[in-house]
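Fresh eyes needed here. Kindly weigh in on this sequence plus structure tokens:
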Amino acid sequence: MHTIRLSLPQQAYDIVIAPGGIAKLGELMSGLNLGKKVLLVSNSTVFQHYGGRAIVSLENAGFEVSSCNLPDGEQYKTLTSVEKLYNTALENRLERSSTMVALGGGVIGDMTGFAAATWLRGINFVQVPTTLLAMVDAAIGGKTGVNHPQGKNLIGAFYQPKLVLIDPQVLQTLPEREFRAGMAEVIKYGVIWDAELFAQMEACDRLDHFQYLSENLLQEILMRSCQAKVDVVSKDEKEAGLRAILNYGHTIGHAVESLTGYRVVNHGEAVAIGMVAAGQLAVNLGLWEQASQDRQLALIQKTGLPTKLPTGIDRDAIVDALQTDKKVKAGKVRFVLPTQMGVVKVTDQVSSQAIYQVLQRMYI
């Protein structure tokens, strides 16, 4: 078991990486001074695999457990789904001392966290991520929210969990496409923060499936990725400055997700496309070497992630969609662009023409 502490001005909590950890969920929560009532939130697929194990662990630790399964998929990350959570919380008389536990991927974690932040003006919240993407990114740092038809995550709140419990063994049941999606966020950390992690992944023959990662490499990926997220968030909890670098690849990525109705590419695939675009922008602007962009492109391809835009997306629509991105400041779109491996800068000095030029080269 490996524990990483995230310390913030108002709160501190542990990210616990523990194989077989779901069986220890109740024990770990018992030491956090939480109320007895727990609402376990999941989707039907994850609940079938791990819901029973989580409930047994919680009940053995003395918690009273109810559950709510939400639809699976980014297109369901809406206020309508959150309302179902509110209704279940009301039916089970959740109190301010009660806890919502998110057992699932980033969509479940985002919605559960937002519901916890807003139910009774804020109740306890625990993250048990079951996808690689959620383990290394979405479950850590307190970003919660839902989508609006005009853009991703436009409705939300910063709300920190009391605990993040990562059980690497659950990745054995993760679909191959979802595993690859998580690798996009891992590559992101290599580019923005941890050049050594990037080099370790380059040395691996294949990264497109869970089975090709050694136990040591998987542990290294989880530990270094989580530590990178903790390092950044501990310095800037609410994205006043440094935390914006975590959006590398997300600016164009979010536009692609939104314009395809969250049905054509998943989040990690969109981020991969966005990283390719951001890297090429950096090259064209003289910030990054082409050799580094080639390394990034090769690693993304090694994971089996897309590097081209899906067919049917107009580049004008992408540029227009960027204006509704929550990272826009004073009317200017902010991009995270690499300057060397492990180092990036945030800039709003990227013209629409520069974006058009890069996008034109990225169609399949």
